[in-house]
Known about the structure:
The protein folds into two domains: 3-13 and 379-499, Sandwich (Immunoglobulin-like); 19-375, TIM Barrel (Alpha-Beta Barrel), CATH 3.20.20.80. The chain contains ten helices and 23 strands. The chain has helices at 53-61, 105-115, 130-141, 146-153, 182-199, 213-223, 249-253, 258-272, 318-333, 364-375, and strands at residues 3-17, 24-26, 66-69, 90-92, 97-99, 118-123, 164-167, 204-208, 229-237, 280-289, 338-343, 353-356, 359-362, 379-386, 389-393, 399-403, 405-411, 418-424, 431-436, 443-452, 469-475, 482-487, 491-499. The strands form five sheets. Strands 21-20-23-18-17-14-1-19-22 form a nine-stranded mixed beta sheet, covered by helices on one side. Strands 2-3-6-7-8-9-10-11 form an eight-stranded parallel barrel, surrounded by four helices. The chain has a two-stranded antiparallel sheet with strand order 4-5. It starts with a strand and ends with a strand. The mean pLDDT is 95.
Amino acid sequence: xxxxxxxxxxxxxxxxxxxxxxxxxxxxxxxxxxxxxxxxxxxxxxxxxxxxxxxxxxxxxxxxxxxxxxxxxxxxxxxxxxxxxxxxxxxxxxxxxxxxxxxxxxxxxxxxxxxxxxxxxxxxxxxxxxxxxxxxxxxxxxxxxxxxxxxxxxxxxxxxxxxxxxxxxxxxxxxxxxxxxxxxxxxxxxxxxxxxxxxxxxxxxxxxxxxxxxxxxxxxxxxxxxxxxxxxxxxxxxxxxxxxxxxxxxxxxxxxxxxxxxxxxxxxxxxxxxxxxxxxxxxxxxxxxxxxxxxxxxxxxxxxxxxxxxxxxxxxxxxxxxxxxxxxxxxxxxxxxxxxxxxxxxxxxxxxxxxxxxxxxxxxxxxxxxxxxxxxxxxxxxxxxxxxxxxxxxxxxxxxxxxxxxxxxxxxxxxxxxxxxxxxxxxxxxxxxxxxxxxxxxxxxxxxxxxxxxxxxxxxxxxxxxxxxxxxxxxxxxxxxxxxxxxxxxxxxxxxxxxxx
Length: 501
């Protein structure tokens, strides 16, 4: 049975303006994200700098605005000074492999320039010191001093001009090297922020955080006036240690609005501490899927062969696409506080792009980014959605009510064009959405672009690269004040309406 929803739009009421950096991505030195991913000098598909041309083109296609690097857990013991100038391989204590160190700060900055993205460097707040962190800022951004001279000697005469920096990664967690108590963290953040901004006061600083009042209160009371961002992470489906990823569509989609709940919690904490409007949220690691990294907390040998389970493309299907769209809608709804998000990761592991010897596969999540980055707009209009719900079983076997439709309305302030995102979360039932309130002026063109596959478990692979893709249909809409759009099951759509000028 075709369900029905109603979306009422108030075009004269603008909720806020999105920051395009919510469409950012992340890279860590893990498995094949860097080596064999974005950076593969031995490949016939690599350019003169060793970057995969097909990956660069794909990241440009979705207008990647910012890339966070080098971690992740990797960064909490990363000696960045060994990754510039003369390269020295070393043992990576996070993932227990030898790090060849051929991809370092200079290569990352060059990658960002080729993509057209802002570099976002996460510093080592595990085994590193405030001096190490501030030296890194000097290397990247200054024209004087020891480390600026080292950068010039390494072939970069002009500063790299890295604006975005993060103090640490998940330093609240026992799994992280150099984990800190809340008191230890607050003191380190103060000293690191002080030294980094003394090197370059123009940089924007984030700190690793969780939705916890005590953790944030201590850090913000110490150093809040030196900070610009609060960094949070989220993964909602964990792979088992034997490399098995969750398959149940309903189990997965029952978690689609948990990221929004996390945003709201942090928003309330910022408000309680007096920093709402002063600090913004960088959701700088997120994905439905957690990475497969077997025996991460064990002290024996890591089973690296099982990490290859991350490369099985059938793991990533329409559940990933629908979840990703709901996440991005949540960021748009909370554009007043969420200013950056970094999909984790950009390439391989559980990322949007998969590389192989002869090319790439664009996973379903890639096409969602294509829709949002290229067909949604800056202004977020006020809207009210009335939608039926359905019951989905959680992984614990409990029944949970899930809204069938999720929607956000965006507008280009210059042209007046609209981009309405419509996400049908139901795995089997279509839904019709009646859209009202735009006035009777009509539009010159209406196009519906939809990401979908023939089943909830549809996926793209080397031998079926377009099983999930974007379909495009022109629509005839006579009266913009009241019209209906049909959304197929497990789909992500953007309705583009060109205003008559």
